[in-house]
Amino acid sequence: RKIVTEHKKIYTGIEFLERYMEYQPDTVSPCMMYISADFIKKYNFSFMPKVFYEDEEFRFNLMQKAKRVLYVPQLYYNRRYRISSTMTVQYDVNRNRDLTKVIEQMIKDVDDENSSILKRYIEIKLWMLLDRCRLAADINGRDELVGEIINVVHQYWKTFDMPQSIEDIKFRVYYINYLQSI
Questions:
Q1: How confident is the model at residue 91, as a pLDDT?
Q2: What residues have CB less than 8 Å from 68, skipping those under 6 apart?
Q3: CA end-to-end span of the chain, whole Å?
Q4: pTM higher than 0.85, yes or no?
């Protein structure tokens, strides 16, 4: 409600993603979306099997294709918090590995390699992953995923033919400094 104040405005998925990212690096969970079955069938959307964070890639593809997104300011969903649920458990190497796989797939799924919004969304997810791995390294004293993450970041750079702008250069500098701190 704080993010999308125009209740009757229709966005494209990319516009909605951009608007949402201004305030929060994550988007709405698929369980809080009404999605046409025809739309899902048309683009053959499905969740990645056997990984945590499968909704990240699903949502990413959904937003790329959506032509009409509307925010409905009604409460239709009630979430229950449990200590051992997927959403509340501490991150571990396997969860971080799954997020690495999901981000790697998102990079492959990009429809428009020139889209600064899609690029920024993936970049935010990469930072989130790096931060989680830093926390895991702080907890465990080491992190097994740094090499895998480096490969995903290089795939990101290759896909988007970086650097192309000062923001891309900043990302590389921050990334290299960040990896050295890990």
A1: 62
A2: 10, 11, 12
A3: 37
A4: no
CA distances to 8, 21, 22, 100, 143 from 129, rounded to whole Å, are 34, 16, 19, 7, 12
Q: Cα separation of 118 and 107, whole Å?
A: 9
Question: Could you tell me the CA-to-CA distances from 178 to 96, 127, 145, 150 in Å, in that order?
Answer: 17, 10, 14, 12
Alpha-carbon distance of 143 to 140, in angstroms, equals 7
Nearest to 69 by CA among 14, 121, 1, 3: 14
Dihedrals phi, psi of 115, to nearest 5 degrees: -75, 115
Helix (H) or strand (E) holding 136: helix 116-140
69-70 and 10-11 strand pairing = antiparallel
Is the pLDDT at 26 greater than 70? The verdict is: no
- 62's CB contacts (< 8 A; 6+ apart) are 13, 30, 33, 35, 45
Residue 61, classified by CB atoms within 10 Å of its CB into exposed (0-12), middle (13-18) or buried (19+), is buried
Instruction: Work out the mean pLDDT of the chain and round it to a whole number.
Output: 79
